[in-house]
Write a structure and sequence with these properties.
Blueprint: E1 2-6, E2 13-18, E3 23-27, E4 31-34, E5 38-43, H1 47-56, E6 63-68, E7 73-77, E8 85-91, E9 95-97, E10 102-105, E11 109-115, H2 118-122, E12 128-141, E13 146-158, E14 162-166, E15 170-175, H3 179-184, E16 189-202, H4 206-213
Length: 225
């Protein structure tokens, strides 16, 4: 299998070339184009319960599996949001992926929904995260460019910028500054990671974009009585 990420970091896309029998699993709706020698099947990875948890966490119930029936079959994939993608070789370590950031993986990588605890809810990231583990290839996407940080001690990230992190990292959610600054400044909640492992975060925040655009939204005029 050959793979390449192009158009980084603004409109990144994944391009994979598969030989006979090789497979790639993608998020529903991620496919841009494919060779005729690829077969696609949609299924609920991990069973009904795992699919239900993914749905609660804002993920697709179904994932698509592409299988090559001949050599040199090309698959072109892109995430829904404009931004970056990163390839994570999976060699046994588990990676936690925030909602909307999973893009694709190979069959040796298990993708399951995991309860993230109430602290993820208060951090604005939802209660369900995706836990990816096993052996193979994993691709995650973002809104904005992706940066990787090798945490060795502690590191703090705004909750809206988290993409993924190795499961060995511990984390806690807290306000940035005092409680007063939480309510009266533009800063909100941050996630403080501790331990040793890799953390991936994005340069843009979708919630911040929504807040910026909110005052400019089109409002229908009220009908006079």
């Amino acid at each position: 299998m050959k793979h390449e990420i192009k158009n980084k970091p603004d409109y990144a896309s994944l391009h994979v070339v598969l030989d006979t029998g090789e497979q790639v699993i993608t998020e529903s709706g991620a496919m841009m184009g494919m060779s005729t020698g690829l077969e696609m099947k949609s299924n609920m990875q991990g069973g009904l319960m795992a699919a239900a948890k993914r749905a609660i966490g804002g993920e697709s119930i179904f994932l698509n599996t592409y299988t090559a029936t001949a050599d040199s079959q090309r698959l072109d994939v892109a995430p829904a949001a404009p931004g970056d993608m990163v390839h994570i070789p999976m060699t046994g370590k588990s990676v936690m992926v925030q909602k909307g950031s999973y893009c694709a993986s190979t069959p040796g990588v298990s993708v399951s929904a995991k309860w993230g605890g109430a602290k993820t809810f208060f951090g604005g990231e939802g209660l369900i995260m995706l836990r990816c583990d096993g052996q193979g290839e994993l691709w995650v996407s973002s809104y904005g460019a992706i940066h990787a940080v090798q945490v060795d001690g502690s590191y703090t990230v705004d909750t809206g910028h988290i993409v993924a992190f190795e499961e060995g990292l511990q984390f806690s959610v807290r306000p940035e500054g005092s409680m007063k600054s939480l309510f009266f400044s533009s800063e909100g909640l941050v996630c403080e990671f501790s331990g040793k492992g890799t953390l991936w975060f994005q340069t843009r925040n979708a919630d911040a974009l929504a807040s910026f655009l909110h005052p400019f939204r089109r409002v229908k005029p009220k009908k006079s009585s």
